[in-house]
Design a protein that fits this description.
The protein is an alpha/beta fold and about 325 residues long. The protein is built from 13 helices and 11 strands.
Length: about 325
């Protein structure tokens, strides 16, 4: 005989299940409202531009509106902090320079958003193509020549970066550990670095390939090497640093998507799939390569190990530089 339960008990049990799992309930119908993509930099720059490329493509993938919202300041930290306190429902995302999140915490004693604890990593999409560039009238003809000269004349060559504690200053330290000893000259951004290179105030620029590309085409700047594991497809005649310095290794500078902590896995998987499809689409691939960037698609199952490994590499580099954390 089938046991009959009182209707009241069944109703209470169902209500308890719904109350106990609001995340599961909301994840079932995701997405059902517009998605905000928060960007930590002003409109018009490379980070903002690529965020809007992906937002437009994700709109068709998710069949839901996507809105880019700029919360600029503190190298993306204001946006990171904002998203870290948002509801973990998948409707507030953070488009970030992920590599900045990995190493900034080693440079300050104040609280910095931890990409693994304070956010939910979802997917990477792009990596910067960085390079070693010199003025076209500089006597050094190749990266091999630069290495030989710097080893014989430590500190004589100067190199420009976007800041004394920037990604490129870490690259300069990595080169120094390989015997390429140059004197750093910090600036406030890639544009001033390139201007200083053109004006002869510095010998070398460590910068993005995109920032020097117009001057390479006009014959005013030469790119000696790219900081890639192998040659960049859009610049096949330019060697990778490792062709001359086989032990050179530096974490990639990449952009990616994060959410607030505690996002349901079902929502993470939905976003991961949509973002991955966008990154692999031919139109996005073409536009990204025209910007002298790489499509760098890493899904939710691999992004956490990537962040952990890169963070450890940055930590080792920073310790060798003997940088004292700022207050």
């Amino acid at each position: 005989m089938i046991e009959k339960r009182p209707i009241g008990i069944v109703a209470v049990s169902l209500l308890a299940l719904l109350v106990a799992s609001p995340k599961a309930a909301s994840a079932q119908g995701y997405p059902s409202q517009p998605i905000r993509i928060v960007v930590g930099y002003p409109p018009g720059g490379g980070v903002d531009f690529t965020a809007r490329l992906f937002a437009e493509r994700m709109k068709s993938e998710l069949r839901q509106s996507t809105i880019v919202e700029n919360r600029a300041g503190a190298g993306g930290e204001i946006a990171a902090e904002y998203v870290s306190h948002a509801q973990p429902d998948g409707y507030t995302l953070f488009y970030a320079v992920g590599s900045d999140l990995e190493w900034t915490g080693f440079l300050t004693r104040r609280h910095i958003v931890d990409p693994l604890k304070d956010l939910t990593p979802i997917a990477t999409v792009i990596s910067s193509v960085n390079c070693v560039a010199i003025s076209a009238n500089h006597p050094l003809a190749s990266f091999s020549d630069l290495v030989v000269f710097a080893k014989r004349n430590p500190g004589k060559l100067t190199y420009g970066t976007i800041g004394g504690q920037s990604y490129y200053s870490l690259i300069g330290e990595t080169l120094k550990q390989q015997g390429v000893d140059m004197l750093q000259v910090p600036y406030t951004g890639n544009a001033p670095v390139v201007s200083a290179l053109l004006g002869g105030q510095i010998d070398v620029a460590l910068t993005t390939l995109g920032s020097v590309a117009p001057f390479v085409k006009s014959g005013k700047i030469r790119v000696l090497a790219v900081m890639e594991p192998k040659r960049f497809v859009a610049a096949p005649d330019v060697p990778a640093i490792r062709e001359v310095l086989p032990d050179f290794s530096a974490p990639l500078s990449w952009f990616g998507f994060f959410g607030p902590p505690g996002m349901p896995q079902r929502i993470v998987d939905t976003l991961d799939s949509a973002i991955g499809n966008a990154a692999r689409s031919p139109d996005i691939d073409e536009k990204i390569k025209k910007l002298d960037l790489n499509v760098f698609s890493t899904g939710a199952d691999k992004i956490r190990p990537l962040i952990a490994d890169s963070t450890q590499t940055f930590e080792r580099l920073i310790k060798t530089m003997d940088i004292k954390p700022a207050e």
